[in-house]
Amino acid sequence: MSFQLVIAEKPSVARSIAAVIGATEKQNGYWQGGGYLVSWCIGHLVSFAEAGQYDEKYCKWRYEDLPILPQPWQFIVPDEKKQQFEVLCALLNRSDVDSVTAATDAGREGELIFRFVYQMAGCTKPVKRLWISSMEDAAIREGFANLRPDSDYDALYQSALCRAKADWLVGINATRLFSVLYHKTLTVGRVQTPTLKMLVDRDAKILRFQKEKYYTVGIHSGNLKADSGRIADAETANSLKEKCTGTTTVCTSVKREKKTEQPPKLYDLTTLQREANRLFGFTAKQTLDYAQQLYEKKLLTYPRTDIQYLTEDMGQTVQHLVSDLLRLLPIAQGLALTPDVGRVLNSKKVSDHHAILPTAEFVKQGFTGLAESECKLMNLVCSKLLCAVAAPNEYETVTAVFSCAGNEFTAKGKTVLVPGWKEIDQRFRSTLKADGEEETETLNTLPELTEGQSFRVTSTVSEHFTSPPKAYTEDTLLSAMERAGAEDMPEEAERKGMGTPATRAAILEKLVQMGFVQRKGKQLVPTKDGINLAVVLPESLTSPALTAEWENRLTEIAKGKADPDEFMAEIEAQVRQLVKTYSCISADKQNLFQSERVIIGKCPRCSENVYEGKKNFYCGNRGCQFVMWKNDRFFEQRKKAFTPKIAAALLENGKAKVKGLYSEKTGKTYDATVLLADTGGKYVNYRVERKE
To answer: Is the pTM here over 0.90, yes or no?
Structure first.
């Protein structure tokens, strides 16, 4: 008997596929049954080798060894993943396996994960590709009925390979180059560095901003209020107010306009991440993680998509889905909705994956058993689908202009004619607790007005200030990353911005983790090191437009419209040029990233400053041996952290009051005064003077 081997990206996905195709017998590292063997990778099982594997000299970071340009590229299997790789290797080379199905995630990275394993195992058996957008049983069955030759995805693999190699080359060489120059580990990345630059540029604009005061004069009659334009000084504003008060104003024009606001598009990953950040404060990574969990639970379609449309053959499915959601969702109770499904269908705009949708499985299960975060995300996706197929929102705007004391005043009003999709949106938003900072739209309804109408008015002056640009939140930064470089791209370019929907979340997390960016509430703000890094790097590494251009080229490679070798040659040339240009920097710049030392107090031996180090508090005078270790046995035995506060008190007074010291004898804690007993030797001693 011969078998078809199916390789998924994760164990949970393999389990779902195995259950559908009848491979129900659990083996060591795979499932078996029905003529199938189903196994899995654990994310990236095979990676590019570390630089040190090419040559031992690369284990040290030295300028003279740069650039590092592997030829040929070498691969490794990390130790913690070797066991599963050996399982796959054995399965791929089994004599009773006659064909292989690549069932890793249907996207650029999934293709790379599968091909690396297949190639490293030395397999040459024919490969088919499973390409699905949902983990539902029906979608898996349909996918297996329509397997395609994996060679159809060769261009996608080339694009993934170019992306991975370019990231490695720029990351390794630029990181080593600038770390060696500045004597500090400075991680540089193809996408993360331009993202950092966007944050630093915005921060600089906020810092440079100087607020300006201005005034407006308002005229009032009953519930009618009209405002002047900006007035620069208080004197002019007060003078106008005096002239208007108690006089008559005449309405000189009334302009009415009927307007239509079309329903929103369905979610792709970026718009889902942006709205979940704005409404719930989720980070981009949290949203992706929750969406991935829901996908693996078969409740949501494939989340890593950059498409906001569905294919035309999905019309019937969506019609049923909408009817079911109207029954299931509390916000849809009593809602009169005649869905216009055609609006969300456009096969020409769908490439690898369609927009994000709830599944038929979700309709069956509902919100039962879901975590609060998952419920929030499902509600978001469901209400977006209802909004997208609802009627447009129609309203009328009124702009009235008044003349008073030789000046013009304007009043604006808005009346809703057909609420359409906005009714669903408002119902959904009214269910939100205090998570978001969404402002509900206030409608200003003006009284009936006609030209030539006159009113007696009173008048007021109000003071205002110009506002600085806002710091980026994940919502606004994701939007900026998506649009980066758009104005420099030709019209027909498929604008991908910086990174892909699937990678942007990880990039933001990495910047925070490396200490270049910090979160302040919802805001993302660059740190001092982040600002310095963005300033010292050349434009070729920090330009969002350049990175967006790379992403566009990778998309062209995936479509078979650009040459991968040409792309890689350009990347290598850029790396060579970078190393050549930055051979040395001035001495003053070399100290740019040295952390400012924190002074704790004065040394009891030589009166020099004592500083806090990572593991100790040490005297700044190199000839002096004075040092207090943070892991000193005295404090460890008493289960007490040796904090800078305690150290400062000991240096200043020779003693410190310490709370919560642990007694090994009694097993209880006590408060006491600790004395610094320095005998001038190598080690400093401490003793408990008295219990408080």
So the answer is: no
Which residue bears the tokens 């009169």? 336
Of residues 657, 658, 645, the one with CA closest to residue 600: 645
Residue 233 tokens, joined: 């000084």
Q: How far is 304 from 215, CA to CA, in rounded Å?
A: 48
Pick left, alpha or beta for residue 395 (phi over 0 → left; psi -120 to 50 → alpha; otherwise beta): beta
d(CA 593, CA 155): 42
Is residue 302 part of the annotated active site? The answer reads yes
Over range 270-277, report the average pLDDT: 95
Q: What are the phi and psi torsion angles at 156 (to 5°)?
A: -65, -40
Q: Long-range contacts of range 598-602, CB-CB < 8 Å, 24 or more positions apart? A: 598/644, 600/644, 600/647, 600/648, 600/651, 601/647, 601/648, 601/651, 601/652, 602/651, 602/652
Cβ distance 531 to 203 under 8 Å? yes
Tokens standing for residue 430: 């009214």
- CA 601 to chain centroid: 42
The first and second tokens of residue 102, run together, are 């690549």
Residue (of 137, 207, 660, 191) closest to 469 by Cα position: 207
What is the b/e burial string over 79-105, where b = at least 16 CB atoms within 10 angstroms of the residue's CB?
eebeebbebbbebbeeeebeebbbbbb
Token reading at 322: 């909408």
358, β-bridge pairs: 300
Contact 609, 627 (CB under 8 A): no
Beta strands in 453-493 (DSSP E): 454-456, 458-465
In which band, very low, low, confident or very high, does the pLDDT at 624 lie, cut at 50, 70 and 90? confident
Asked if residues 510 and 566 have their Cβ atoms less than 8 Å apart, the reply is no
Task: Name the active-site residue from 302, 309, 395, 472.
Answer: 302
Helix (H) or strand (E) run with residue 659 in it:
strand 655-662
Average pLDDT, stretch 592-619?
86
Angstrom distance (rounded) from CA 468 to CA 208: 9
Residue 493 phi, psi dihedral angles, 5° rounding: -65, 140
Question: Residue for token digits 């642990």?
Answer: 662
In this prediction, residue 500 has a pLDDT band, given cuts at 50, 70 and 90, of confident
Please say whether the beta carbons of 398 and 256 come within 8 A: yes
CA distance 522 to 279: 11
Task: State how far Cα 423 lies from the chain centre.
Answer: 30
Question: What would the two tokens of residue 120 be?
Answer: 């490293």
Tell whether the model's pLDDT for residue 66 goes beyond 50: yes
Rg (CA), the chain: 32
Rounded-to-integer distance, Cα 34 and Cα 301, Å = 26
Residue 37 is inside which H or E element, if any? Answer: strand 36-40
**pLDDT per residue as tens digits for the range 212-234:** 999 999 999 988 999 999 999 99
Give the β-pairing of 127-129 and 97-103. Answer: parallel
Residue with tokens 């307007």: 259
Quote the distance between the C-alpha of residue 249 and its chain's center.
Answer: 53
Taking residues 79-87, report their average pLDDT: 94
Residue 173: closest CA among 190, 160, 159, 158: 190
User: Token digits for 353?
Assistant: 């994956």
Is the distance from CB of 400 to CB of 226 less than 8 angstroms? yes
State the Cα–Cα distance between residues 374 and 4, nearest whole angstrom.
35
Give per-residue burial for 431-451: e unless 16+ CB within 10 Å, then b.
Answer: eeeeebeeeeeeeeebeebee
**First-last CA distance in the chain:** 81
